[in-house]
Amino acid sequence: MLFRSRLLGLPVFEAPCEAEATCAALCKAGLVYAAASEDMDTLCFSTPKLARNLMAPSSQEKPILEFDFDKLLAGLELTWDQFIDVCILCGCDYCDSIKGIGPVNALKYIKQHGNIEALLEHLDKEKYPVPDDWPYKEARILFKSPDVVQTEGLALKWTAPDEEAVVAFLCGEKSFNEDRIRKQLADLKKARSQGGQNRLETFFGAATVKSSTVGKRKEPEKGKGKGKGQGKGKSFLPEGPPSEGLTIERAAASDLALMQKFWKDREGSGEVVEAWSIDNPLRTWKFNERRKELQQQLGRAPDELEGLHGSDPNNYISIVSGGFRRDLRGSAVGQVYGAGEYLAKCPDVSVGYCRGGEYMLVCRLALGVASSTAQIGRASCRERV
User: Fold this and answer.
1) 221 lies in a domain?
2) C-alpha angle 250-252-257 in degrees, rounded to nearest 5
3) Same domain, 295 and 182
4) Does residue 4 surpass a pLDDT of 80?
5) Which CATH number covers residue 111?
6) Residues 187-199 pLDDT 10s
7) Which of 117, 228, 301, 345 is least surrounded, with the fewest CB atoms within 10 Å of its CB?
8) End position of a domain, from candidates 115, 144, 173
9) What are residue 276's DSSP bridge partners?
10) What is the pLDDT of residue 216?
11) What CATH code is carried by the domain that includes residue 350?
12) In this structure, are 195 and 140 located in the same domain?
């Protein structure tokens, strides 16, 4: 397949491990628009976009489906780590699943307990037998830190097709019509000579966005649910916030590359040499709850951005565990403007707040109503974020 693709002048790479993982890395690096695969495990590698049915025969009339990873996590109200755990429970290529736990229960239990470890502590193992020596942790590592093609400095280069070699293969070995093949190759060369790459709409028509209803549960009719006509429908969503917990892991090489690009795009001095991923299910839950409130207030999804926060290195564990403390704001820490948290766009601004340390936080913000006054104060900041 690699040889035949190169005959057509396509840029081809041999993945050192999972092909979907390398496709996800290429997408993260901005080298491709989306990873095209029928394997939904591709999303576990955090590909920004997944395209399905791209190669389906036209006779099947299947629409091209695009999955946006950030929107998927926001819609499910999960972190990347939690999404991986849900997929492991549903069944993946790397390990067995727990018999009896399907997609509905997988989502329910991870939302309720935060991760597989906490779930196993409360799981009825007679009802849901756990596989012996279950390598779910190893599966996580394969999803989070796969071996992929190095994307730094990588360029996708198309070359002219080798017409005679293509004709020899398709016509000499596969008995295709030579005139037809040469005409197609001539069209391909003409398209290449015109410059930029065509958009997908050129081949598949204008894109239409449809909200998926797959997997959405019907609201139970009164008197129809279990409970002898009391009208109580069964819901898989947990009640209340998840339990407290914190996981900090060294970022995968692809995520480090993204952070280095983020730093460069924000015009930061120096370079990022290490990065860590922080997972706090309780703080994620609170963020999502606040985002829901803002959506109701605004009548639309709130805008989001990323801000940089510098602090004394000794403060970071406290911040990522319990959030920003109200008693350590404003004048209490020598802050000049306002009483809220200071989050900067440019890394160099936050460096001075690091008190000589070499670390800072990248925080995701959901924006509310813009302040109606130029004065920066407690009220206006609370309205905005």
Assistant:
1) no
2) 115
3) no
4) no
5) 1.10.150.20
6) 888 877 765 555 5
7) 228
8) 144
9) 250
10) 46
11) 3.90.228.10
12) no
Mean pLDDT, all residues of the chain? 79
57 in a domain, yes or no?
A: no
Q: Specify the pTM.
A: 0.53
Residues 4 and 130 in one domain: no
Q: Quick check: is 296 in a domain?
A: yes
* Maximum average pLDDT range among 83-87, 218-222, 290-294: 83-87
The mean per-residue pLDDT over the stretch 203-225 comes to 50
Q: Is 182 found in the same domain as 125?
A: no
Q: How many domains does the chain have?
A: 3
If asked whether residues 257 and 380 sit together in one domain, one would say yes
228 lies in some domain: no
- Percentage of residues of the chain with pLDDT beyond 90: 28
β-pair partners for 201: none
- Expressed as residue numbers, the domain containing 277 is 247-384
- Which of 21-25, 141-145, 283-287 has the least mean pLDDT? 283-287
**Nearest alpha-carbon partner for 29 in 201, 253, 195:** 253
Give the residue-averaged pLDDT of 94-98.
90
User: Tens of pLDDT along 131-178?
Assistant: 999 999 999 999 999 999 988 888 888 888 888 888 888 888 888 899
List Cα–Cα distances, 7 to 1, 178, 183, in angstroms.
10, 16, 16
Question: Could you give the C-alpha distances from 48 to 76, 80, 275, in angstroms and in order?
Answer: 16, 12, 19
Look up residue 172 and give its DSSP letter: I
User: Per the structure block, which two tokens stand in for 211?
Assistant: 């909200």
Pair 134, 171 in one domain:
no
Residue 230 pLDDT > 60? no
Token digits of residue 91: 């069944």
Task: Work out the average pLDDT over 119-127.
Answer: 91
Contact between 141 and 16 (Cβ < 8 Å): no
Share of the chain above pLDDT 70, in %: 78
Query: Is the domain of 260 the same as that of 356?
Result: yes
Phi, psi torsion values for 52, nearest 5 degrees: -120, 155
Residues 20, 37: Cα–Cα separation, whole Å: 7
CB atoms within 10 A of CB 108: 17
DSSP string, 108-164: HHHHHHSSHHHHHHH--TTTSPPPTT--HHHHHHHHHS------TT---------HH
Q: Are residues 283 and 373 in the same domain?
A: yes
Token pair belonging to 201: 């709409």
| Closest to 23 in 3D by CA, of 131, 113, 149 | 149
